[in-house]
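Let us begin with a simple case.
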Amino acid sequence: IEKALRRCGATVIDLSSVGGDCPDLLVGFRGVDRLLEVKTDIGALSPGQETFAREWKGRAVAIVRSELEALAAMGIRMDT
């Protein structure tokens, strides 16, 4: 997911080691910053992650499960 975002010109900072239920990635693209929580196909948010997402005062935390979902969360269209 990080590589796909970078290939499209996004800046990506891995926040996974921050702790405190902070989302996994901070992504910037064309003047837009977004927090992304990366989950597997069956992964669910922990109660702490749900609380973080609910209480975050910025743009909503995006839950993404694939490269395409991450790109879409950043407004990046991949035309086929």
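The second case is a distinct protein. As before, the sequence precedes its structure tokens.
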Amino acid sequence: MERVTITIDDDLLKQIDGMVDGSNVKSRSHAVDLLLRSAVSQASVKKAVILAAGKKERLWSEKHSKIKPLVEVDGKTVIEIILAKLVDAGVKQVVIVVGYHGEQIVGLIKDGKDYGLSVEYLWDENSGGSAGALLLCKSKINESFVLSYSDVYYPELEVSDLVKFHRENSKNGVCTLALVNVKTPNVFGVAKLTGSMIVSFTEKPRAVESQSNLVNAGIAICEPAVFHYISKVPSSFEKELLPILAEKEKLYGYIYSGKWIDVELAP
């Protein structure tokens, strides 16, 4: 173990000293160690799902044959950037749902060891929609997990902050969706918030119907209970599942104000 020096407020230090009982908590440093471990644990998840089963028509553009997860930003593919964010948040295991040209993703990421992860692939052979693709992961997930699209770029989002927010604010929710403010919300999934709860979610509303500029940023924290709300396949995560969760008061929103790019709309 490494020795470090920290400065602690007097009132907080008194609370820490009050934890010391000589048995379960042997000393002040032991109390601080326990508190830090607990805080880190609360702000991390170990598993993640990445949805990367795009159809043929979901290529980056007519001029490029690349599938969107393999578009490069600053010398790295979008999916590699997402994996790095997950590692930073403490994720250890990732399930990637692949479809059209999925072999390209498998060839790049392989088993994930080069990225500090254990990566498993599931194939969405019959295009079950984004919710159907998520449902394929049900047998692999029994705890809180990160859910990310594979074609969004959110370099300044701290996944551990999103996890912490989910655990502190979502009460009985099963999903906390990262939201970003955009000028043209009608081309995305639009969320209406009351406090931290998303009270309605509409995928690509007409401009006149949009009541918010907060849209789905493509990353969320979910509980395993989310699978219970997927009642049919094929089905859409955005058009069917998220509106149901909002209606049942199970969906919450975390506002992300950093840089964000939807690869589909990138030049």
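Residues 28-42 form the longest helix (15 residues). The radius of gyration is 20 Å.
Keep these points in mind for the review questions at the end of the chapter.
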